Amino acid sequence: MAILSLAWKSLLNRRFTALLTLLSIALSVTLLVGVERLRTEARASFANTLSGTDLIVGARSGPVQLLLYSVFRIGDATNNLSWESYQDIAVHPKVAWTVPISLGDSHRGFRVLGTTEAYFEHYRYGRDRRLSFEEGQPFSDLYDAVLGAEVADTLGYQIGDAIIVAHGAGEVSFAKHDDKPFRVLGILERTGTPVDRTVHVSLEAIEAIHVDWQSGAPIPGLSISADQARAMDLTPKAITAFLVGLESKIATFQVQRFVNEYPEEPLLAILPGVALSQLWDLIGVAENALLIVSAFVVVVGLFGMLTALLTSLNERRREMAILRSVGARPGHVFALIMGEAGVLTLLGVLSGMALLYLALIVGQPLIESRFGIFVPIGGPTPYEWVLLGAVIAAGFLVGSIPSYRAYCLSLADGLAVRI
Amino acid sequence: MVIDIKGLQFRWQPSAPLVLAIEDLTVGPGEHLFIKGPSGSGKSTLLSLISGVATATVGTVRVIDQELEQLGSVDRDHFRADHIGYIFQMFNLIPYLSVVDNVTLPCRFSASRRAKARARGKDLHAEARRLLEHLDMDHADLHQRAVTTLSVGQQQRVAAARALIGSPELLIADEPTSSLDADRRESFIRLLFDECRASGATLVFVSHDASLEHLFDRAIDLAVVNRSVQDALGERGGL
User: Fold this and answer.
1) Quick check: A324 contacting B, CB < 8 Å?
2) What pLDDT score was predicted for residue A173?
3) Do A322 and B81 count as a contact with CB atoms less than 8 A apart?
4) Which of B80, B82, B96 has the CB atom closest to A12's CB atom?
5) How many CB atoms lie within 10 A of CB B181?
6) What contacts A288, CB < 8 A, 6 or more positions away?
7) Of A270, A298, A317, which residue is a domain's last?
8) Which of A103, B86, B108, B179 could be stapled to A325 by a disulfide with Cβ–Cβ 3.0 to 4.6 Å?
9) Global pTM?
10) The domain containing residue A18 runs over which residues?
11) Is 0.95 exceeded by the ipTM?
12) Could you say which architecture CATH assigns to the domain B3-235?
């Protein structure tokens, strides 16, 4: 106990370097636990990019590919599926609802998605959260568009603005559907999902802008105006994919088999949750790398302490000789340095956690609105306790190096002061 | 006898040269012994042996009737804490402790000195202040100041108070006055004498400054007593 109070007073005396050391440990702990907490929540939020949907159905390809283009708007479908097949599956007795989606066009780099009002009713993300409108309402007219939050933010659109849809998914497109401009009728609230980067229009609108097109180019000599198109039959011939909600989850595999064995057309039904976690396993490497990097930051922080303690030893040899002269054993000297390392580590971990909670309180609303990740402010999880325990253990381990060196020095020096 | 050295030989390592060889050296209770020795005459080694940091290679060192060679290193550290007060040449104080905490430092390591100090004063702090007062360090503001801002003379008096607290039987002073002005040396030594007399402590005072010799009951010249030095000097051509 006597030694610990000496260690404390000694740290207070060198409070500037001690504070810097403590700060570097604290920040590294904040980073470590913060990364751990964020990645846990990012994983959960990723798995909930699409929730409430039991199956995604598309033309037969790979599960991850279907997920990528139907949910993340990345890449393109190799094939569409016919409207008849869609109608057929939609009336399956176990199917409660379906949301058709049609992709292929874009607006200044953002994908345009053709769908129905059912999209706004049934689409769920996160923990069963539904889409809500920041402004406006779902499309009602043929040439209405609903923008995701990021589209509106990035391009500075407001309700009533006119937008031109371009053919194809590229950032720069020369084939534009400029004869049929859309009007922004609604802007969705930010979700932190790919919905934010999507321009939503009706299926019929997708059909309408392509009535005078064939094979990705306008048919020469044929021009149907926006108003003329209204009079035509705009039932789509094909869609890209559709989301399926079931009456009961028990029927999931039954309906999945029904789709996969559908005789008229090769189709694929995937369980979004399973496909999402498969995809996460692919990209989760980065997340692990991040945790490893922050673990190394902790090691660097502890090395800072090691350096600070080791460099102080030489100038403290006199202090050790004085302690030895009043009866301190070399073991006491070991305990003195160890006490300092322990105090620095423990206080570092404590203030690191305090910093983390402060950052969470400040950053929670920001992270949620920006990335759609809700980071709960709870006590440490068991895994976080393990991480903290490991940091403390590492701190003591690192502290034992200068402590042992001080032990050896005081044993060798005795009462002689050699500087 | 407080110190009783018989047939002592010491080398730091078995293969290292002999640094100290003393046939017979005794110091009685209450005695004030002056050990004169130029640097390199083996005084640090002798003090290490008396204070139990090192042990004799051959022969015995008895301090207050305790043969130090028979104690383990932990027990020797305890023994030093309980029975010996030590004053260094300079920089005696722990920079991060207050004046009073520096004085009471030995009481953290020795229960018996803590008990004796408490018995003399009201508590440890009162006893520390009493000793500081006796050593002409009675200005209250001195006690508040960081020890690093004290003058060298003041630091040495704080060190003396620390060596004296809890009345150890033996006081070892390793050139405590070499950093003081000539006129302050004598007054410091007289203060030390007074306190040693008051507590009945034996004083072993080491210095290369022969001008202080006359103040002491007895003086020995380590260069004469230590036969290993004479040998070494002989080898080097009487340097």
Assistant:
1) yes
2) 62
3) no
4) B96
5) 11
6) none
7) A270
8) B86
9) 0.74
10) 2-46+284-413
11) no
12) 3-Layer(aba) Sandwich (3.40)
